[in-house]
C-alpha cells in the first residue's frame, strides 16, 4: 500500500472503523502523506519550507498523478504549508476512494450533526489493523523500519496518532520516535515538521 493508504488505515479503529483523529488532523496528515508519496518516488523535492517538481513523469497511481499535476499547474505556489492546507480539504475522500478502488473499503453516506457526510468502511479488519500492528511490533522489538514506515510513524507523531503504536510500549520505545524522524532524509523530515506545524496552527486557530 501507498503511504496515504497506510495513514488512512492507521487513523481508523480496526474494529469499529471510528476515526482516531479529529477530521482536521486527519486531513493534514493525509495531505502530508500524499506529498510524501511524491517525495518517496522522487517526483518532488522539499527544502527550507518549499517544494518543487523534480520529475514530471506521471506516477503509476492515479491520485499521485493528480496531485503532481496540481503542483505542476500551480508552480508559482512553492511553500509547503499552503499545499498541505489545500490537499487536506478533500484528502479523506480522495484516499478513501483509492481504497474503494483497490477493494479495501466501501463508501456510504451517514448523518453527522445534522448533515450528510461520506464515510468509508474498511472491508477487512486484519488489513485495517496492519499498519499499527506492524509499526507497534517493529518499534517494540527495535527492528529497523523501512523508509515508508519511518515516514508513516513521523506523520502519525505529527498528528497525535503515535500513541496507537506506543500505547503498551516500554518507556524507551516512546523515545525512539524522535530519533527515527530525525534520521529521515531531509525532504521527508521537513515534510513531517511542516505537517506538525500545520496541525498546531489549526488547533490554535480552532481555540481562538
Question: Can you characterise this structure?
Answer:
There is one protein chain. The protein is mainly α and 208 residues long. The chain has one domain: yeast vps74-n-term truncation variant domain like (yeast vps74-n-term truncation variant fold), CATH 1.10.3630. 60% of the residues lie in helices and 12% in strands. The protein has 11 helices and 4 strands, in the order ααββαααββαααααα. It has a two-stranded antiparallel ribbon with strand order 1-2. A hairpin with a 2-residue loop joins strand 3 and strand 4. The longest helix has 22 residues. It is globular, with a radius of gyration of 16 Å. It starts with a helix and ends with a helix.
In short:
It is found in: Golgi apparatus membrane. About 60% of the residues lie in helices and about 10% in strands.
Q: In the residues, how many domains can be counted?
A: 1
Order of helices and strands: HHEEHHHEEHHHHHH
The Rg value, from CA coordinates, equals 16 Å
DSSP E strands, number: 4
Question: Describe the biggest sheet?
Answer: 2 strands, antiparallel
Helix content: 55-70%
User: What structural class do you assign from the helix and strand content?
Assistant: mainly alpha
CATH architecture: Orthogonal Bundle
Low-confidence stretches: none
What's the helix count?
Answer: 11
